[in-house]
Design brief:
Blueprint: E1 9-13, H1 19-29, E2 35-39, H2 40-46, H3 48-56, E3 59-62, H4 65-78, E4 85-88, H5 98-106
Parallel strand pairs: 1-2, 1-3, 3-4
Helix pairs in contact: 1-5
């Protein structure tokens, strides 16, 4: 599965501060311009606008399986069904070099311009 350049992409980690931001930056390098970021903790505490990002996304990229599981729980709790295609990476923490792991794992999904 390749993510189209014009897709609405939501990058989600736990807090929405480090890994999701790093993924958004990487996507921007490849000319993906419609990228939002969030964290499951923001969705749980702030709801509204953060949940709208989830509902409106064409692709949701969870940065680890635990985030995917929490997203599913949030949807159940809020009676939300999202139609986005889900991609789950395996970037467990913000250890040194996590950006390189994100880049390696997301590359197979990107449309790369020649």
């Amino acid at each position: 599965m390749k993510i189209p350049k014009n897709a609405r992409v939501l990058s989600v980690c736990n807090s929405g501060e480090m890994r999701s931001q790093a993924l958004a930056k990487i996507l921007g390098e490849y000319r993906y311009t419609n990228v939002s970021t969030s964290g499951v903790s923001l969705m749980l505490t702030e709801g509204g606008q953060e949940l709208e990002k989830l509902i409106n996304a064409d692709y949701v990229i969870a940065l680890e399986k635990r985030v995917e599981d929490t997203l599913n729980s949030i949807c159940l709790l809020n009676d939300i069904q999202y139609t986005a295609k889900l991609i789950t990476l395996d970037v467990k923490s913000t250890y040194s070099g996590f950006e390189n792991d994100i880049r390696k794992q997301i590359m197979p999904y990107l449309q790369i311009d020649p």
